Amino acid sequence: MTIAEVQEKIIKLKKEKNICILAHAYQRHEIWEIADYIGDSFGLSEKAAETDAETVIMCGVRFMAETVKILSPHKTVYLANSTAGCPMADQMDIDLLKQMKEMMPDYKVAAYINTTAELKTLCDVCVTSSSAVKILSRFDSDKIIFVPDCNLGDWISKQIPDKEFKLVRGGCPTHVRISENDVTRARKAYPDAKLLVHPECQPAVTAAADFVGSTTQIVKYAEESDEKSFIIGTENSIVEHLQFSCPDKKIIPLSKDCVCHNMLATTLNDVYRCVQGTGGEEIIMSDELIRSSRVCIDEMLRLGK
Length: 305
Ligand code: 13P
Ligand code: SF4
Description:
By secondary structure, the protein is α/β, with parallel strands linked by helices. It has helices at about 5-15, 30, 40-50, 60-70, 95-105, 115-120, 130-140, 150-160, 180-190, 205, 215-225, 235-245, 270-275, 285-305; strands at about 20-25, 35-40, 55-60, 75-80, 110, 125, 145, 165, 195, 210, 230-235, 250-255, 280. α11 (about 215-225) packs parallel to α12 (about 235-245). Bound molecules: 1,3-dihydroxyacetonephosphate and iron/sulfur cluster. Iron/sulfur cluster binds near residues 88 and 260. 1,3-dihydroxyacetonephosphate (13P) binds near residues 40, 86, 114, 128 and 214.
């Protein structure tokens, strides 16, 4: 079958079975084309809370499918490819966080949404890259333990200098591959291009950027700008998506190594098998885990409105 034929079958089946397909912005272009909604982590969480489909298929990584299940516990939720995890989400040690909370009782805990459901049960609020500054500015504590991404945490702390942040050593193994040298090289080769980067990049990279934002914020910036060339410092699927949506603009990857194999694990055929009912992994969580991990996600949605 061709890509177009598989896409046609997926679209027919999802309508017949009342299935909603959510796709993170890093998904392959052929998955974008059959998705009901494409977005960053915050947009996906909002959609998860409001969709009225009986079944939701997440094309993204595990914590994103868990977030859908937590927000819509009565729906059947699938992760389209069960091997797609976010390595950063598994970095934070639960016992270490418990110890930090005990040692710093006057601090509240903010977690990047890229964390497991178990870890979320210990947190007061969640954030995503697009919503973090707004949420933590409004958050009712000036002393914040931020886990698990110290690069994102460093960037947020610089945007909200009046609050005190305690960071841990963790981060995205994909974005950390972008170096200061990549910035120097790209600036020299394309002096007129705007540099757009994700806040998961190292501090020296975000400090040198013209714009720092989430995946969809980067896409929106490049699409709406009158400028003609852009260097993209995030997962390289965004480079390809922008080349499709802005054919008259020059879209350049900041590093050829910024590739997330977990995000790219999901194929169109995985989605096809999932809508057929023969593939994907159904997300099963206990009522107690859903209830206790939901508190910090609800707080994120409330403060992020
Ligand atoms: P966004 O919130 O920008 O979608 O980021 C999620 C992610 O995993 C980036 O690496
Ligand atoms: Fe996780 Fe980084 Fe991949 Fe995003 S790009 S899913 S943070 S490993």
